[in-house]
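User: Run a structure prediction on this.
Assistant: Running it now.
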Amino acid sequence: MDFALLKAVSRSFYLSMVWLPPTMRRGIALGYMLARATDSVADTSTAEAARRVDVLRQMGRAIAGELSTDEVQSLLCLLRGEMADAQSKDSEAILLRRFDECLEQLGQVSPQERGLLRRVLSIIVEGQLWDLTYFAEHCQVESEEDTRRYTYMVAGCVGEFWTDLGLATMGAAFCETSRRGVMAKAGCRYGQGLQLVNILRDCEEDAARGRSYLCGAPELWMSRAERYLNDGLDYARRLGCFRLRFTAMLPALLGLKTLRLIAQRAGNERVKITRGAVYASLLNAAWLSAWRRAS
């Protein structure tokens, strides 16, 4: 796994991921890179929506191991050329040009890890496809259930994956095995909370693109996001070692800071956490991670 590329694609994720125990680090990093590659096609590409839908479906089938060798090679040529050229960020263009390395890494992990990765990526790609096809005909979600379902598909399922991968690779050293169901649900809400922060932060930009992921007052979703992030902090406190707790806790702390900035922002100004606030969150995460919460 090229961690330099991972750092270029997401500095905040890289900051927390490097602290993971080695037994989990590869699977988490690989899952992120695969999801980021599909997201680069689904969200940031300037290609036509119908074209992105077709390529995204092919990427999902490649990850699932459903394409022939020739079909995979055809997809890789498409990603290295047309799709990479359509990216606005160099790091994401590079990621698409190296998608073959991600698929190769997927083939090298254990069958159990590969099954978990394929399951979570299938859900994520389903959510990305829903996004592309739904907003081709609509400007706003029609119900709270649409928002909950979307945030589950693109982020909540990752909390379940995190739990299952941790138990598969670390066993009881990850968390009490009897609490798998409770932890998976908390991890799911945590992921949904992080996605809600992204939606709330980007709502003005999304509206300018003719899409709104929220039904109802933003204040309702702000409150829900805060509650879900606090679920994430509780999830992190119950993990079995300092490295796990620190890695899981940091995104929640950054998400809560972002929510406060969203509540305070004036007009359409872009919300961005300062480097000093990131360092403060790192220290806070380290302090809070020193002790494990008893079940």
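The radius of gyration is 19 Å.
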